[in-house]
Structures are given as structure tokens and as C-alpha cells.
Specification:
Length: 171
Amino acid sequence: MNRADEDEYRQFVTARLEPLRVTAYLLCRDWHTADDLVSITIGKLYRHWPRVRAMEHVDAYVRGMLTNAWLDERRRPWRRERATDELPDLVDVTLPQAALADRELLLDLLAQLPPRRRAVVVLRFYCDLSVEETGRALGISAGTVKSQAARGLESLRALVADQVSTSGESA
């Protein structure tokens, strides 16, 4: 890769690193795994940068690479090391406790969705991609995106209803 391409690659990665980390975290719900996924993605991106930079929707392509890296990890869990002790994440003290609880509840509910459905929901509603952009990122048709998004939202609504009814019974 020539120097100009490498400088352009570095600028792209620097500008998109944190949004990629957050997207990866929403998919896998573990900051360490999210960092691994982003590292895998930017490593592959470096190898293919001259071809990728000429694309019309580079951000969508990179999100697709990230999502595919996560799905690949989900399909091959034996390749990952398992931690024996879990350290708690740092709590953001600027958020009220109710907001933290809502965020944790949403992350718990997302974790209950199947991987492909979770990927569609995260890309469509967190990353605010269109149906077509989500389909391109995941390599699936627009109809599949629509049905997976609808089923994902339906599942989340059912899980919330179960949560509400369960907490109402215990009160």
C-alpha cells in the first residue's frame, strides 16, 4: 500500500473506531470481545483498503465486515478463550440509575435474540441503516431484513411484556 492510501486508511479508522466499538459491543455485549472484533475488522480492512476505498458505501461495507466477524465468532465458539473470573465494567456515574437499569435491560433483551436477528436489529435501529444498507452489510435480501427486523421487534416486545408481568407478580 502506498503512503497516501495508508494515510487515508488511518484517517478512516481513527474517525470510525469508537462507533465500530459501540456497534460491536451491542452485538456481543462484551467490551473485550468487541475490541477483538474491531481489531479483526480493521486488520482485514487494511489488507483490502485499495479495493474498499473505491466503494460507494465504505461505512456500510465495514459494518458488514464487523457483523460478519461477530457471526463468525458465534459460529466457532471453540476458537475463543473463556475467562474464568469476570471483572465488572466501570459504571458511568453521570447517568441516573434508572437509565442504567433501562440500558442493562435492553442489552439483556438483545442478548436473547438469535445472532442474525440481533445483527439486523442493531444495524437497522442503532446504526440507523436503511433496509437496503442492512441487507448489503449482511449479504441478505431486503425482504429478509424486513422479516428479521419485524420478528426481532416482536420478540423484544414479548420479552418486555414477560419482564413486566414477572416483575408485577413479584411485587
